Amino acid sequence: MYSRFSTGLLLSLLVGCAGTGSHGAANLVPARTMQRGHAVGPIQHVIVIMQENRSFDNFFHNFPGANGATYGIGHGTTYTLKPINLAWPNQDPIHSHWEFLEDYDGGKNDGFDREVYQFAGGPACKSEPENFPDCWVYHRQGDWLDLAYSYVPEAQIRPYWTMAKQYTLGDDTFSSNSGESFPSHQYMVAAQSGHASEVPSIMPWGCDAPKEAEYYLAAGRSKPPQFPRAFGHEVGYPFGPEPGPDPCFPLDDKPSSAYPTIADLLDQAGITWRYYVQPHVSGPKGDSYWLNAFDAVKAVRYGPDWNANISEPDTNVLTDIANGDLAQVTWVMPHGGASDHAGGGSGNCGPNWVTSIVNEIGESPYWNSTAIVIMWDEWGGWYDHVLPPQYPDPQTGVYEGLGYRVPLIVVSPYAKAHYISHKQHEIASTLRYIEQTFNLPFLGTGSGHAYADQRADAFDDIFDYTQKPLTFKAIAPLPGHKGCSNPWDFVRQKWPPEKD
């Protein structure tokens, strides 16, 4: 199997190694001096809206001036990208770490026509089949063959296009991890995932699960070896030999397991923050509660921040803005029907949900001091024609990212208008931007550990603080989506949803 991934791999490895010179631990920027609660420019409030599971080509493949594609290659076959509805409950493209390896295909980027939906049985596949492509079973029938080669028509996501045209769209933005949503959300708050590589086995994702297990990317090659050493191999749940430990970080008291988060820096500096997410309750009103990244962080889950700064449900953000109670740093996760995730629970409320937050800020006194960053946590298995660069983890040396491109939209009076950013960004760029905006040090400063906020940029080319602040123009929502005004009406119709 090594030969399958060796073609084109050398170039990929060189790209990854070159990346460590310009983005990795060898070129760390000196830590900045912390000033409590101090913003260094006109931006006093940062809002990160994290949508789910879309590649750049899936949403903006034909955006004027952007780096998009109209077709893709799958093992020698050319597939023309076809339109697909935003609300797509029929299928959910596979987006595991092993599917990333299949799509990436050793740097050939031609594996999107093979959806790894299960593992084969038999003695050869009894242990760690996730590391052995010979054990991967692919969807071969019907729409699954070319499902990934799809795009959502502009008319169904027009509010996103309107924001992208009025403000800034990033077309070279990547997920920080090469797998599913759980690790991505950890990179959003911790610039690492503790080497976790998939979604955990049980809901919720983190310390509140009664007993769950996880996959982790480890150094070294599988036995027998299948992939180059730089890609490591997955260990843990469910194939063993031992289940991966519960993803409640840090996993132990060893210095190598340190798990600082942006919450630590914000609390130390006296900067207010709030994380909006669904409540952990059964039934429709608990939809998407698993997107609480801080549930996997012991210091937050079992500390005072849990009750003070975790706000449920996500729609509380609209009330807090209206009441003049917006925190300096805000994260907002989507409720059911408002997530852009395909599969069960798929809905078309996402664009209007994001629009409601943007308009609430734009029509409030907060507009002139706010930056809104809208991102999608991972590619969702949808085709993207740009091969993601690979960077070794500073601790293990294993490639844990980058993942495929995701859309980035930045809305702010100081964002460049009508601008397409061709500069590389990633999920961890949100952390770097928060650190830069509030003059905070990097995560883990002084510990000897380097995290992804140090390799990421801070959306450096997107903001111009010398320009005259842009006047806000309300974003028109999609018509005919009355159910979006009451999220529970939609969720009840689609319960239960997809959970990854």
Could you explain how this protein is built, in words?
This protein has 500 residues and is α/β, with parallel strands linked by helices. The protein has a single domain (2-70, 153-209, 248-494), classed as Alkaline Phosphatase, subunit A. It is 22% helix and 14% strand. It contains 14 helices and 20 strands. It has helices at residues 2-6, 9-23, 56-60, 97-104, 158-166, 181-190, 262-269, 298-301, 305-309, 316-322, 350-362, 429-437, 452-455, 487-494, and strands at residues 45-51, 71-74, 77-80, 82-83, 116-119, 136-138, 150-151, 168-170, 173-174, 215-218, 233-236, 273-276, 310-311, 329-332, 370-376, 391-392, 399-401, 408-411, 419-421, 425-426. The strands form 7 sheets. Strands 13-12-14-1-15-18-8-19 form an 8-stranded mixed beta sheet, sandwiched between helices. Strands 2-3 form a two-stranded antiparallel sheet. A hairpin with a 6-residue loop joins strand 16 (391-392) and strand 17. Helix 10 runs parallel beside helix 11.
